[in-house]
Design a protein that fits this description.
The protein is of the alpha/beta class. It has 13 helices and 16 strands. The protein binds pyridoxal-5'-phosphate.
Length: 455
């Protein structure tokens, strides 16, 4: 869907900006150093500001807007639910909550019958860890460097990126390990097979040295999201499963970013021939129209809580206004063949085009991805693979990435950039024309980073 933004409205722009700057305390920011874009509206894969500019959203907001802005079916589902029963507390049974739980269970592997609903991804991970600790009686949790699991106390400690640093120590029982990252192999591997093998050997050593008798869970993003669209090499996740079985550890798959279609499958782990013990989700379950997340619980773990009380809960767990667009999401996915179109667009349109960009632009080191989830890794030198900007770059150090993002925005594309990477993550309903248009814009904007490399 391409949409023309309404005319500029400078008065509204100033009013929205003014209230925001005076009264809204923003996430992850030095408050005086930011300039949030006032957004007036959106439709499909596009949103627009009050200055008459529209943006094709190649970031799906925070990689949650899988069905795009203002999807009529999701909006209608919320409206219908609001007119019928706007809220109900979690200890009562509710038709909408129950139906969504059943549908989520139906798309999950056999033996995953139950869903614990949360308000978002962080508290999904928080509660998954809580379950694992209670079931195993073991407290330690292993998580990857280069990961993001949310901002609540255990979830931010699990996180393997700089967002954790200022929050430490929040949960003393978390240990980080290196996951596979073939392009910048921490194991000096030179093939995906070797990367998987060595990453598993490292994980096993970590388990042994930390003490298997102390480790309750391992949490892994099935494809690492914000920290790089890192696709696990063949055999890695099944190997993790095997280690978890051998050492009595619960395997938690964090599917918050890749679940619900981002990779062209309901769950990301389906691509890697593995079944975890707990599945956490949020974002795509209802495209974030109303906050919702949760844990899909394997029957083995759920059975533990048949007679033992689960010591966790949230006032809004399974909120009907959030579950209603979740049910509508299932309907839209089936009716519109969303999973099939994601696989088709990813392989037929995105992959070849990004590979062309990799061949053409000296600043592109690698492109990788699956479905509608891709990364372009930018480098100063293709031989040494020196990143275009340093890890955790900010301010002047990040200028080349800021210049790239500015070129995209000027051309009408809202990009996702993180450190030295550009991620391609448009809404799953993006039209083929818009997808190609967005890739064209990125292709041209890469001339800015090429010039940086040449200078
Ligand atoms: C993989 C992953 N896990 C957890 C979270 C946290 O989700 P939320 O922001 O809904 O708490 C995110 C958010 O980006 C995520 O990408």
């Amino acid at each position: 869907m391409s949409t023309i933004a309404p005319d500029a409205d400078p008065a509204a722009d100033a009013a929205v900006r003014g209230d925001d700057r005076r009264h809204v305390f923003h996430s992850w920011s030095a408050q005086a150093l930011i300039d949030p874009l006032p957004v007036a509206g959106g439709a499909g894969a596009t949103f627009w500001d009050y200055a008459g500019r529209s943006y094709l959203d190649f970031s799906s907001q925070l990689v949650n807007l899988n069905l795009g802005h203002q999807h009529p079916d999701l909006v209608a589902a919320i409206q219908e639910q609001a007119g019928r029963l706007a809220t109900i507390q979690p200890s009562m049974a509710n038709d909408t909550r129950g139906e969504l739980a059943r549908r989520i269970s139906e798309i999950s592997p056999d033996g995953f019958s139950k869903v614990f609903f949360t308000n978002g991804g962080a508290d999904a991970n928080e509660n998954a860890v809580r379950m694992a600790r209670l079931v195993t009686g073991k407290r330690k949790v292993l998580a990857m460097y280069r990961s993001y699991h949310g901002n609540t106390s255990t979830a931010i400690t699990l996180t393997g990126d700089p967002r954790r640093w200022a929050n430490e120590p929040a949960d003393a029982s978390v240990v980080h390990f290196f996951g596979p990252y073939a392009y910048r192999s921490p194991f000096h591997a030179d093939s995906p097979e070797q990367e998987a093998e060595r990453a598993l050997a490292h994980l096993e050593q970590t388990i042994i040295l930390e003490g298997a008798s102390t480790i309750g869970a391992i949490i892994i993003e099935s494809v690492v999201g914000t920290n790089g669209v890192l696709i696990p090499p063949p055999g890695y996740l099944p190997g993790v499963r095997e280690l978890c079985d051998r050492y009595g550890i619960v395997y938690i798959a964090d599917e918050v970013m890749v679940g619900f279609g981002r990779l062209g499958t309901w769950w990301g782990f389906e691509n890697f021939d593995v079944v975890p013990d707990l599945i956490t989700f949020a974002k795509g379950v209802n495209s974030g129209y109303v906050p919702l997340g949760g844990v899909v619980v394997s029957d083995r773990i759920a059975a533990h809580f048949d007679t033992v009380s689960f010591p966790g809960g949230l006032t809004y767990s399974g909120h009907p206004l959030a579950c209603a667009p979740g049910i509508a999401t299932f309907e839209v996915f089936r009716r519109d063949g969303i999973l099939e179109r994601v696989r088709d667009l990813g392989e037929r349109v995105v992959r070849p085009r990004l590979e062309q960009m990799a061949a053409r632009h000296p600043s592109v080191g690698e492109v990788r991805g699956l479905g509608l989830f891709w990364a372009i890794e930018l480098v100063r030198d293709r031989q040494t693979r020196a990143p275009l900007v340093p890890f955790n770059a900010a301010g002047a150090d990040a200028a080349p990435m800021a210049a790239f993002a500015a070129a995209c925005k000027k051309a009408g594309l809202w990009p996702f950039t993180h450190f030295n990477r550009v991620h391609v993550a448009p809404p799953l309903i993006v039209s083929e024309d818009d997808l190609v248009r967005g890739l064209d814009i990125i292709d041209r904007a890469l001339e800015v980073t090429d010039a940086e490399v040449a200078s």
